[in-house]
Amino acid sequence: MTEVLFYVFSAVLLIAGLMVITAKNPVHAALYLVLSFFTGAMLWMLMQAEFLAVSLVVVYVGAVMVLFLFVVMMLDINFEELRKGFWKFVPLASVVAAIMAVEMVLILTHPAAGLKAVTIAERAPDYNNVRDLGVQIYTTYFLPFQLAAFLLLVGMIAAIALTLRKRKNTKFQNPGQQVKVKRNDRLRIVKVDSEPKPTFEAPKPAAEGQGEGQA
User: Fold this and answer.
1) How far apart are the C-alpha atoms of 10 and 39, rounded to whole Å?
2) Is 114 helix (H, G, I), strand (E, B) or coil?
3) What distance in Å separates the CA atoms of residue 60 and residue 109, rounded to the nearest whole number?
4) CB-CB contact of 14 with 40 (8 Å)
5) Which pLDDT tens digit goes with each residue over 116-140?
6) What is the rounded CA–CA span in Å between residue 80 and residue 214?
7) How far is CA 50 from CA 8, 121, 128, 133, 191, in A?
8) Which of 45, 61, 63 shows the shortest CA–CA distance to 53?
9) How many CA atoms lie within 13 A of 205 on its CB side?
10) Is the pLDDT of residue 24 over 90?
11) In this predicted model, what pLDDT tens digit does every residue of 183-192 receive, in sequence order?
C-alpha cells in the first residue's frame, strides 16, 4: 500500500508541476504549486519525515505562497506578453530538465553518496528524526543552510522593493509627518455669531364682508 500511495502522489506531483508552468492564469499556477507542495509533504510523510512534511506545508504553503500571490497581484504584470516565446523555448527547457533529472538520479544512486534505505527495524527505539535533522543542519551542512537562508532573505527584500514602487495617482501616508502633526494643524475653532431668533406674526382675521362674499 505504501508503494501504491508513493506512485499516486508522485503522479499528482508531476502533473501539478507541469500545470504550474503551463497555466495561463498566475493565480491558477499558484494554486497548482500549492497542490504540488501538499503532495510533496505526503511523500515526506511516507518516508516518516513528519517534521519536514509539516515544515513544507507551514512555511511554503502558509508563508511563501501568500507572499507570492501578494507580489503577483501588486506588480500587475502582463503575463500574455511574457508568454509569447514560451513554446519557442520548450525543447531547450525539456533537454535541460532531462539532464538535471539524470544528474540527480546518478548522484542519489552513486555509492559515494552514502545514501541507503533504513527500515524501521534498524532504527534505535529512541530515534528522533527532528534531532537528527538538526544535528546534520548545524554541523555537516551548516554553510549551505546559511546560504539558503541568505538567498531567501534576498528574495524577500527584492519582493518588498518591487511592490513599493511609485505608481501614478497612488495615495499614501507619511508616518513622519503624522507624528509631527500639531493640534492646530488638524483642528480649527471658528466662532460664529448667533442668528436672531425669527419671529412669527399671528394671521389677521378676515373681514366679515370679505368672508361672506367668498362664501
Assistant:
1) 8
2) coil
3) 28
4) no
5) 655 555 666 677 778 888 888 888 8
6) 84
7) 19, 18, 10, 11, 72
8) 45
9) 3
10) no
11) 777 777 888 8
Q: Would you state the cell numbers that stand for residue 121, as one nine-digit string?
A: 527495524
Are the C-beta atoms of 36 and 20 separated by less than 8 Å? yes
In the block, residue with C-alpha cell 493565480 = 27
CATH 3.40.50.1820 fits 1-81, yes or no: no
- 30 and 17 in contact (C-beta within 8 Å)? no
Q: How far apart are CA 151 and CA 109, in angstroms?
A: 28
Per the CB < 8 A criterion, the answer to whether 151 and 159 are in contact is no
Task: Check if the beta carbon of residue 22 is closer than 8 Å to that of residue 37.
Answer: no
| Lowest mean pLDDT segment, chosen from 87-96, 104-113, 148-157, 165-174 | 165-174
CB 74 within 8 A of CB 163: yes
Burial class of residue 37, CB neighbours in 10 A (0-12, 13-18, 19+): buried
Q: Which three cell numbers stand for residue 141?
A: 551542512
- The amino acid sitting at 195 is E
Beta carbons of 68 and 30 less than 8 angstroms apart:
yes
Identify which of 145, 136, 162 has the alpha carbon closest to the alpha carbon of residue 68. Answer: 162
Q: Which run of H or E residues covers position 66?
A: helix 65-75
Backbone angles phi, psi at 8, to 5 degrees: -65, -50
Instruction: Please give the grid coordinates belonging to residue 83.
Output: 508568454
